[in-house]
Amino acid sequence: MSGFVSFVGAGPGDPDLLTVRALDRIKRADVVLFDDLAAGPILAHAGAGADLVGVGKRAGRPSPKQDHVSRLLVEYAQAGGRVVRLKAGDGGMFGRLEEELTALRAAGVDFEIVPGVPSPFAAAAAAGIPLTRRLSARRVQFVTGADISGGLPPDLNMAALADPMACTVVFMGKRTFPALARALIAHGLPSDTPAMLAEAVATPEQCLTRSTIARLAAQLAQDRGTKPALVFYGPLAEGYDD
Ligand SMILES: C[S@@+](CC[C@H](N)C(=O)[O-])C[C@H]1O[C@@H](n2cnc3c(N)ncnc32)[C@H](O)[C@@H]1O
């Protein structure tokens, strides 16, 4: 007997930001395999009899290997029942969704994908800023600040990232932002380009800090803390007062 897997986007952390469909799948799950960033109060919506299995990967900490997570997912599905694979934000954004889909397809396990609110959308909403601006930010780009080794990916398109008409959001980029900011400035982006650090968005630890790319790089070189964070930069609209 083969079960069924629902990949569920958990949103950025606040259960209020779950979709109705996500909540339904979590409530009816027999097993929930969850990432660190998709844990917390969202798991309280699982049924009392559901198995909750943490498979979280966090930078700088020992974490389960992706192969192990994919194998576990297939094994739970093949044991039968409703399996929820809970991923932070939207599972399709820097969420290693592809590897897990490939494993399920190879094993002949049926699945669905339930989208979630990606963390940049929640951060922009919390900051009271739009991601696009009619005349000055005609483009939005999402980029990872870390490759598999944790360093700045060497193959980033720096011309695109230094585009002054784009709003850029860097995932997993706290550690590498000082290097990225140096490269952006070398590619012509002014050092006083507005920036925002959005930490632990939609959680009780949420912290939004307005800055510039040069100031934020200096701050993160000194102290980057442990909260998950996004770095925004570009022609950001005025939002909250910091
Ligand atoms: C593996 S990626 C997952 C992204 C997720 N799929 C999404 O749609 O937001 C993890 C990174 O997403 C960002 N992130 C996820 N949730 C966040 C939150 N609540 N606050 C700030 N950044 C968050 C951070 O850059 C974190 O290091």
State the main characteristics.
single chain; 242 residues; alpha/beta; Cobalt-precorrin-4 Transmethylase, domain 1; Methyltransferase, Cobalt-precorrin-4 Transmethylase, Domain 2; 2 domains; five-stranded parallel β-sheet; five-stranded mixed β-sheet; 7 helices; 22% strand; elongated; binds S-adenosylmethionine
Write the layout of secondary structure elements.
Elements: E1 4-9, H1 20-28, E2 31-34, E3 51-54, H2 66-78, E4 82-87, H3 97-107, E5 110-114, H4 119-127, E6 139-144, H5 158-161, E7 166-171, H6 177-186, E8 194-199, E9 207-212, H7 213-222, E10 229-233
Parallel strand pairs: 1-4, 1-5, 2-3, 2-4, 6-7
Antiparallel strand pairs: 7-10, 8-9, 8-10
The chain binds S-adenosylmethionine.
